[in-house]
Specification:
By secondary structure, this protein is an alpha+beta fold. The protein has 8 helices and 7 strands; from the N terminus they run αααααβαββαββαββ.
């Protein structure tokens, strides 16, 4: 419809200008319909030229840098136009055909149609290329996010299973409720995290369950301050995004530490999520690195950059044996 509208408007302009010019004259000459048919015939040729050049000539010669071949075929096409108009004059118009008149009336429209055709094809190909690149980028992004998210699950499971082993060795009565809580966590990990976004309430409930399991493991050995405020309204967030910070706090904030302490604060208001996790650590403790060490923070940094780009800020400080992260995310 857009193409048809442009062609109709473009080819009606000369007729409208002629009608306006004739309207101002007092004497009207008889209309020669043969020239009207010639204009319609030429317009049809220009339309065919536009699409033939856009879909055959440009990709076949222009894009392949066969400029001489492209120029030769253009000369051949305009020569064919000239022959067709000469035949039209011979059979339908009782006037002599002049080649100079043909080029005077047709050279500029011909070049204009060719220029528009090339521009149209180039813009169309750029738009299509951009669409393909965007789709490829989105697919790569989805693949990378799925891979990064899958890295979180085994790391988390190692920590939780260690908690279960510790409770089993102690023959604690907390083992059964802990297993029930673990099953709810697994249900969340298996069925909820396939979604691109989850309600913030579910992510917070997941955090609480994980913190409860850790608190059951360490008991009074670790001072744990948790302040999770209910959000001022419903929000959505990428699943499994906050847990690596809490995992990191328990991983490095427990052990041979004088008065270990972990502080966790979360609030979401005015479309901004603020998440603060801090823990004491022992700088003299040299941890043995394994294949899974370092997955958490490097993973979550990459995911934040992919998902929230300029809509987040992450500050990590290390002062006076305190490790602290301050994460702010602009929620939509």
């Amino acid at each position: 419809m857009l193409h048809a509208s442009v062609w109709i408007l473009l080819f009606l302009i000369p007729f409208l200008l002629q009608q306006s010019s004739d309207h101002g004259r007092q004497e009207h000459k008889p209309v020669n319909h043969a020239f009207t048919y010639l204009a319609i015939f030429s317009d049809a040729l220009y339309i065919m030229l536009f699409y033939f050049n856009a879909y055959i000539m440009v990709p076949g010669f222009f894009y392949k840098k066969k400029y001489w071949a492209y120029f030769f075929f253009q000369l051949l096409i305009i020569s064919s136009f000239c022959v067709l108009q000469m035949l039209f004059f011979e059979f339908f118009i009782n006037q002599p055909f002049r080649i100079s008149g043909f080029f005077f009336f047709n050279l500029f429209p011909y070049l204009f149609i060719i220029a528009c055709s090339i521009t149209y094809r180039v813009i169309q190909d750029r738009v299509e290329l951009e669409r393909i690149n965007n789709e490829r980028e989105n697919e790569n992004l989805k693949t990378e996010l799925t891979f990064l998210r899958s890295q979180v699950n085994p790391h988390f499971m190692f920590n939780v299973l260690n908690n279960m082993v510790a409770l089993a060795r102690k023959k604690s009565d907390l083992l059964e409720p802990s297993l029930i809580k673990l099953s709810s966590l697994l249900r969340y990990m298996l069925y909820e995290t396939d979604e691109q976004k989850v309600p913030l309430e579910k992510e917070v409930e997941y955090l609480r369950s994980y913190i409860d399991l850790q608190q059951q493991r360490f008991g009074s050995m670790v001072k744990l301050n948790v302040n999770i405020q209910p959000p001022d309204r419903s929000y959505e967030i990428e699943p499994m995004l906050l847990i690596p910070f809490v995992e990191n706090a328990f991983k490095h904030g427990t052990g041979i530490i004088d008065a270990p302490q972990i502080d966790i604060n979360l609030r979401a208001e005015k479309d901004v999520l603020e998440f603060i996790v801090s823990n004491k650590y022992n700088p003299d403790t040299k941890e043995t690195k394994d294949d899974s060490s370092g997955i958490g923070l490097s993973n979550v940094k990459r995911r934040l950059n992919l998902l929230y780009s300029k809509n987040h800020s992450l500050a990590i400080t290390d002062n006076d044996n305190w490790f602290k992260i301050v994460l702010q995310i602009k929620l939509q």
